[in-house]
Design goal:
Distance between the termini: 33 Å
CATH topology: Proton glutamate symport protein
Radius of gyration: 17 Å
Largest sheet: none
Structural class: mainly alpha
CATH superfamily: Sodium:dicarboxylate symporter
CATH architecture: Orthogonal Bundle
Number of helices: 10
Length: 191
């Protein structure tokens, strides 16, 4: 959970500042309502209309860019989901007594990346994807299943934070794309 918060409050502002060369504090102040809505609904799909409105009207991204990048990002840009899947898999492996090698860690990261791109934008989907990753890497003994049940017990608040991270990442990506295409209204962004 700490890693997700660090990525949300440090990673994305740094990304926006370095890649789009805009003030990250303006981004944080304007995108907070999208993050809170995503947090409360746990659904990237439900947050999409607010994200499009905020990204175009307040962050200055051209509507053509936002209407392409945000729905695409809602489907495949699941940074929070990928982070959570890796951390949860490592937690389960530790609880179940598995020794994770470097090659297994790489496989876990790749599986999480691929699986997160295919995760539906609906509440509860991450827990199912996590089980798929555990099965794919072979962590299926009784200890792993007990540790998985611990993850299920606390999944809702984690999923809420993951969704907030995902929707903020979609908006940050659209700012970068708009900037690279010369379609970012900096006056509107800085207003």
């Amino acid at each position: 959970m700490v890693l997700l918060l660090i990525f949300l409050f440090v990673g994305y502002p740094i990304f926006v500042a370095l890649s789009a060369k805009v003030n990250p504090m303006k981004f944080a102040n304007k995108i907070i309502k999208v993050a809170v809505f995503g947090f409360s609904t746990s659904s990237s799909a439900a947050t999409l209309p607010l994200n499009i409105k905020t990204t175009t009207e307040e962050l200055g991204v051209d509507e053509k860019i936002a209407s392409f990048v945000l729905p695409l990002g809602m489907t495949i840009n699941m940074n929070g989901t990928a982070i959570m899947q890796v951390v949860a898999t490592l937690f389960i492996a530790g609880c179940a007594g598995y020794d994770v090698t470097v090659s297994q860690l790489i496989i876990i990261a790749l599986l999480a990346l691929i699986a997160s791109a295919g995760t539906p934008a609906a509440p509860g989907a991450g827990a199912i994807i996590l089980f798929t990753i555990l099965s794919g890497i072979g962590f299926v003994n009784d200890g792993a299943l007990l540790a998985y049940s611990l993850i299920l017990a606390i999944n809702r608040p984690i999923e809420m934070l993951v969704t907030a991270l995902n929707v903020v990442g979609d908006s940050a990506t659209s700012i970068y794309v708009a900037r690279s295409e010369g379609m970012l209204d900096e006056n509107q962004y800085n207003a």
